[in-house]
Amino acid sequence: MRSLLFVPAHDARKLSRGLESGADALIIDLEDAVPEAEKPRARAMCAEFVSAHRERLPLFVRVNALTTGLTADDLAAVVRARPYGLMLPKCTGGRDVALLDAQVSALEAQYDVAAGSLRLLPIVTETAASLFGMESYAREAGARLSGMFWGGEDLASDIGALANRGPDGRYTAPYQLARALTLLGATAAQVPAIDAVYTNFRDPEGLKAEAAEAARDGFSAKVAIHPDQIGPIHEAFTPSSADVHWAQRVVAAFDASPAAGAIAVEGRMLDRPHYRAAQRVLARGASAQRG
Asked: Which pTM does this prediction carry?
């Protein structure tokens, strides 16, 4: 996946637009986008939508945080509909993912849903405390962990910051740290790192620059809040033909000499990390073609 688009669970028009957006996946939001009084209706709409469209593209559901007392009702409504996965907000570490895993497993057994099929995608930077638990995902989260997503908006609120970006539009130091820790934590857990939303959906150039930087640094995808953001995100996360050609040369050279620790390709001495990087480029290119 290169792109995941947030859509509110209680808005039929936006749900329908999400299907036509071209996004690689949707995140149906039961949390921040839904007022408290609307949550019961949103759960029912979400379950109906997932049941109707789960074969069309991957559908995640963002449930309410474990500390809200609303998570159990969210799960009871949507697990039976068999979404592709759940997004867990306000996650403080791998133990929270394991706790959600246990709750989902019980419901899968109750509803006769294939055990372990539902993936978990935590948002891992929404509180200051969560930044200190990044290494726990590799140890404690379990096999359902399918990625790690960071965000800077709730973190700014938790810190009490006046803004999370400077005059140049770039994240300030605390949020750069959160972003880097997410990338490293995901790498340690061997799952994709997913970049934060770009909230100014009327600034396509800023989005392009930020998405290109994320792809350069090793993120696998970026989350969108508006359908107009999908195109620039896909452009950033789709390898160029030149990148694919080079990766093919590197992979072919190492595959032809499987015992080699280092190998020369077009005058450059490359080793095994280059081989793995080339494989990721080819995988991303293949994913883009399927999309």
From this structure: 0.91
